[in-house]
Each structure stands twice: as C-alpha cells, then as structure tokens.
Write a structure and sequence with these properties.
375 residues
C-alpha cells in the first residue's frame, strides 16, 4: 500500500507503486480471454496428451495410475493457488480496516475533510454488501485465471514425463547393447550383428524416433496454447512485484505502520512465488529435453564401441543421427509469446532483476529525498 504522506518520493517510484492496481486485475481478465480464444486448442491438446500417454504406457494399470497422478497434481495446484490468493486478498482487506482504525478520524483540514465527505457519500451509494461481493468476485476471477495457469503447468508435467520415458527407453537400449555377450571386448571387431538382433535394434530405434517426433509435436501444440498465457502471467506478476517493491521502499522513508509494511512484504513473496516457483515445472521440461541428445550420443558410442565394423552410414547410425539432430539445443522448450524461454536462467534472471530494481528504486528515492531536504 502506498503511504499517503510520501511527498518526497520520486514520481517514477510512486508511479511504479501504483502498477499492482492494474496488473493484478488485468492479469485475470487477460488470461481468461486468451483461454477462451484457445479453447479448441485445449481440447485437441488434451486428446493428444492422452494418446501419447497410452502409447508410452501400454499397461492400462500404469496408464490409469499416471492419469490419476496428473489429476491429483492439478487439483492440488488449483486448490493451492485459490487458497493463497484468498489469504492475500483477505490480508489486504484486514490491513485496510486496521490502518483506517489506527489513523482514526481525519484531521481538521480541507483535504482530509473532502476525503471523509467522499467516503461517506460513497458508503451511501455503494452498500457494504456490494463491496464484499466485489471482493469475492475479484477472488473468483483471479482464481479462475490461476486454474488456466494450472492446466498449462500440468500439461508441462505430462510433457516432461513423456520425455523422461523416451530417454529411459534410450538408456535401456544402451544397457542391452553393452550386456551383449562378448561385446566391448578386444575381439568385438570380430562380432557382427545377427539379423534378428539388428532388426530388433532398428525397430526399437524407430519407435524411439517416432515417439520423439510425436513429443515434439505435442510441445509445439502446448506452446501454441500456453505461450501467451505464460508470457502474460510471468510479465504481469513481475510487474506486480516491482510495484510492491516500490511501495515498500516509499513506506520505509515514512512513519508507516507495521502492518502495512508487513503486508507489502507478504505481497512481494506471494507474487514472486507466482512468477517463479509456480512456473518452475516449465523449466524442468527443458532440463529433461536437454538430456535426450546426450543419451542418444552415448547410445551411438556404445553401438560403435561394441560393433566397430558396423558402417557409419548404416540404418542404425542414420536413425541415431536423426534422434540427435532432432534433440539439439532448444528443440523442445516451452516459450512465452515466442521470444522468452522458460528455463532456469530465466527465473534466476527474474529474481536478479527484481533485486536490481529494488536497489535502483531505493537510490532514486533517497536522491529525491535529499534534493527535497536541501531545497
């Protein structure tokens, strides 16, 4: 909350401190509007995810167990986001009521009298019940937008599971080759692929390549559905953090009551969590995708080491090259609006930017106060 007596604060910092008024509610509207415009993509994405899961988990019990796990994650995340935002909204309301009680009636000056007169007229026009209903509407609207974010996060968890299952298939194939009798010995050059073994290896590699192509398509569909939502959430939540940081810095330079200061700190913690911790599963997708290229390379080395006489232009090596080529850097990464990648460095940079902004805003405010005191 912006303290009313912050006359010496820089106009820029004061302007930034007003940002949360627009970003918090604007975020909810923007996310829901994007979701409504992408509802067809959502249904196709849901069908595609279930199809990939069924192909990776032929056992119906395993498939059911995974689907139940994803459903539980969605319910827990959805409930947690609603509870956290409700706590934040209630804390804001309580702080407003407590600060109003602490400050007491307005002082005998024209500005305070005009403010008191306006509030009295407003209470006559707008009943208290309607104000409470508006608070409930705000909580419901933001909670619905968080459910859209939760959908994207659960889809990211599914994508990571698909990548992990495909990577494990590559690893199992590598172990199987290394465990072939007489392989990886000094006489391995005398060993040739038997036809059944070669056909089995080619079939397994072709399955991995097909699944990898399907996973890449699923990632592209997920980006088409979620990239604007993810971008809006990340940027607006970060702007909200900047606003509360500015409000906190301004309040530190004045006799602000403790509960207002605590509320600003809690608001920063909540929205930093929304823009970083809540979105971390998107970065885990990139981490898992990056290991695919290494696993395919290790499998290629294992094939060449165990069977050095196998031609490099054989079908086996060609398939391995296709897998490595299609798993190059940034081949599978979730993006925001097409130009930011949700990776660990992005979230680390977000926190660093927030800290840097707090230092700059503090210096601006201090310099402005010094200039005002000198004049």
């Amino acid at each position: 909350m912006l303290h009313q007596s912050s006359h010496n604060a820089s106009s820029f910092v004061k302007l930034v401190a007003c940002i949360p008024v627009f970003t918090i509610y604007g975020r909810a509207f923007i996310v829901l509007l994007i979701f409504l415009s992408k509802r067809k993509e959502y249904h196709s994405l849901q069908r595609a995810s279930l199809g990939i899961a069924a192909s990776l988990l032929p056992d119906s019990d395993d498939l059911k167990r995974c689907c139940n796990g994803w459903r539980r994650n969605a319910n827990r995340l959805g409930l947690a986001t609603i509870v956290f935002h409700t706590i934040w909204q209630l804390s804001n309301t309580i702080v407003f009521l407590l600060t109003a009680g602490i400050k007491g009636p307005p002082e005998n000056n024209s500005t305070a009298a005009a403010t008191e007169d306006f509030l009295q007229k407003l209470s006559l026009i707008v009943p208290d019940g309607l104000l409470y209903m508006s608070q409930g509407f705000n909580i419901s609207l933001y909670g619905l937008s968080q459910q859209v974010v939760t959908l994207g996060i659960v889809f990211a968890m599914m994508l990571r599971f698909f990548l992990k299952a495909n990577n494990e298939a590559i690893g199992k194939l590598q172990i199987a080759i290394q465990n072939i009798p007489n392989a990886s010995t000094e006489r391995s050059h005398e060993i040739e692929f038997s036809s059944p073994l070669k056909e089995h290896l080619i079939n397994d590699l072709q399955k991995i390549r097909r699944k990898q192509a399907v996973i890449r398509n699923f990632c592209a569909d997920l980006n088409a559905f979620f990239r604007n939502v993810g971008f809006a959430c990340h940027v607006l939540d970060q702007a909200t953090v900047m606003g509360y940081v500015a409000a906190l810095i301004i309040s530190n330079n004045h006799d602000t009551d403790l509960i207002t200061w605590i509320n600003n700190c809690l608001s920063i913690i909540f929205f930093v969590g929304y823009s970083t911790i809540l979105m971390l599963p998107l970065a885990f997708v990139y981490d898992e995708a990056e290991s695919t290229n290494l696993r395919a390379y290790e499998l290629s080395v294992a094939v060449h080491r165990c069977f050095p006489d196998e031609p490099l232009d054989s079908q086996i090596h060609q398939i391995l090259q296709d897998i490595m080529f299609s798993s190059e850097q940034n081949s599978i990464v979730l993006q925001g609006a097409g130009f930011i990648n949700f990776t660990r460095p992005l979230f680390a940079g977000t926190v660093t930017f927030g800290l840097s902004f707090s230092v700059v805003a503090y210096e601006i405010t201090q310099r402005s106060n010094n200039i005002s005191s000198c004049s």
